[in-house]
Each structure stands twice: as structure tokens, then as C-alpha cells.
Amino acid sequence: MFFTNILKSELDQTHYYGHTKDLDSRLKSHNQGRVRSTKGK
Fold first, then answer.
1. What's the pTM?
2. Which of 9, 21, 23, 29 sits 20 to 30 Å CA-CA off 2?
3. For residue 8, which phi and psi values (nearest 5 degrees)?
4. What pLDDT sits at residue 41?
5. Residue 27 falls in which region: left (phi positive, over 0), alpha (psi -120 to 50) or beta
6. Per-residue confidence of the chain (41 residues) as pLDDT tens digits?
7. In angstroms, rounded to a whole number, what is the distance separating the alpha carbons of residues 36 and 8?
8. Which residues of 3-36 are buried (b: 16+ CB within 10 A; e: fewer)?
């Protein structure tokens, strides 16, 4: 099963849209700054 995720930057209010099979792992990656598209936000 795939999950669709929408993240909103608290810094500049922009949105990131994505999808993943492992939602917990993907959110952890975003929060740790390991995803290039959301790293600076």
C-alpha cells in the first residue's frame, strides 16, 4: 500500500507533496534533514 503525504514548512509555509510505502521511515528522513527537497525547511 502507498501513502500520500503533504508536508507544510513552518519556515516559509510552502508545501511538499510525496508518496511512499513506509510513511514512518519517510517522515523520519524528512525530519532529520536527509531529503534534499525539504532539507533547508
1. 0.73
2. 9
3. -115, 125
4. 83
5. alpha
6. 999 999 999 999 999 999 999 999 999 999 999 999 999 88
7. 15
8. eeeebeeeeeeeeeeeeeeeeeebeeebeeeebe
**Cα–Cα dist 1/32, whole Å:** 24
The residue whose grid cell reads 519556515 is 11
Alpha-carbon span 12 to 34, nearest angstrom: 19
CA distance 10 to 26: 18
Q: Which three cell numbers stand for residue 28?
A: 523520519
What's the start-to-end Cα distance of the chain, in Å?
A: 28
Q: Are 41 and 14 in contact (CB under 8 A)?
A: yes
Alpha-carbon Rg for the chain in angstroms: 10
